[in-house]
Amino acid sequence: MRIALFTETFLPKVDGIVTRLRHTVEHLQRNGDQVLVVCPDGGLTEYKGAKIYGVSGVPLPMYPELKMAFPRPSIGHVLEDFKPDLIHVVNPAILGLGGIYFAKSLNIPLVASYHTHLPQYLSHYGLGALEGLLWELLKAAHNQAQLNLCTSTAMVQELVNHGIERVDLWQRGVDTEMFQPHLRTKQMRSRLSQGFPDHPLFLYVGRVAAEKQIDEIKGVLEAIPNSRLAIVGDGPGREDLEAHFAGTNTHFVGYLHGLELGSAYASADAFIFPSRTETLGLVLLEAMAAGCPVVAAASGGITDIVTDGVNGYLFEPHDPQGAIAATQRLLKTSSEREILRQNARQEAEKWGWAASTAQLQRYYQEVLYSASFSAAA
């Protein structure tokens, strides 16, 4: 198959969506498919054999790490040269709308996927009144596709409830080779804890932004003596959070990659994740693959991953004491924590990227078969 993938974000940007797309592109190419990635220009022209067509854009005002790249006629020429069998638009917002347009104008089957729960983000930026309008826009875009994919059962139901049609589940995936429990080291604990490796060490990895509710971890630090927090990642909320956590044992690490990131996950006592806006929460799976017990809000796609008391602990999203109680429960006995570590790893081992991509290929083939059947009729 020849697949044109439209995405609002790709390398060198680092986030959960890029991680999924990076592994998906790699496995599609490895399996003999040809991929063209249409994305905001990041200086790359190729990735793992896939062609990249970068579209120049301008930084998003509230989030300058992201670029707004607007569709242009040259994309049509690139598609005509590439001759895709199928177009897949990821989180269609700006550039993705071009993917929808070209799929329709060139009569190419269309798949869309939903990865970022944008309607819930709005309230964190003072725009909650626009949620209903955004759902209508999302419905209009996604209902152009022959198939809409979500990465958790909660999001499948959410889209169906808002009138989006032809929705199915694209199973989660995680790199179980990169993230492993044996990468735990005292040296990494010392680095993350700023020289206090024997103190309770909590970890957050991901986008540093308001919608992630990272500020709520402060209560956990204040409730547990000598505890320390390492925040790995970056984003538009960093300056505000540095002021919020001032005077606490919090270390803003910045980005980590590869084995360093794997070691950070494996070396922490708990991965704390208060976000209530997750369609999946890929970082949770990465933490679990590294054997790091998870304390997370029981919201969105998280409940597909974390089973309370088995491979981590869940808390009610709107309970201000929930994260504190769940973390205290986790730290209570080392023997129980070790069982959670083992169970977390076993859960993650079920979800390799090869299986996730094989499922996606089956979805593509079903869409292509339906399209050819409709054309013949």
Write the layout of secondary structure elements.
Blueprint: E1 2-7, H1 16-30, E2 34-40, E3 46-47, E4 50-55, E5 57-60, E6 63-69, H2 73-82, E7 86-90, H3 95-105, E8 110-114, H4 118-121, H5 131-142, E9 147-150, H6 153-161, E10 167-169, H7 186-192, E11 201-205, H8 217-223, E12 228-232, H9 238-244, E13 250-254, H10 258-267, E14 270-273, H11 282-289, E15 294-297, H12 302-305, E16 312-315, H13 322-331, H14 334-348, H15 353-376
Parallel strand pairs: 1-2, 1-7, 2-4, 7-8, 8-9, 9-10, 11-12, 11-14, 12-13, 14-15, 15-16
Antiparallel strand pairs: 3-4, 5-6
CATH class of the largest domain: Alpha Beta
Instruction: Count the domains.
Output: 2
Form type = globular
- Taken as a percent bin, the fraction of beta residues is 15-25%
Report on this structure.
The structure is a single chain. The protein has 377 residues and is of the alpha/beta class. The protein has two domains: 2-173 and 352-376, Rossmann fold; 181-348, Glycogen Phosphorylase B (Rossmann fold), CATH 3.40.50. Helix content is 41%, strand content 20%. It is built from 15 helices and 16 strands. An eight-stranded mixed β-sheet has the order 3-4-2-1-7-8-9-10, sandwiched between helices. Helix 9 links the parallel strand 12 (228-232) and strand 13 (250-254). The longest helix has 24 residues, at 353-376. The protein starts with a strand and ends with a helix. The mean pLDDT is 91.
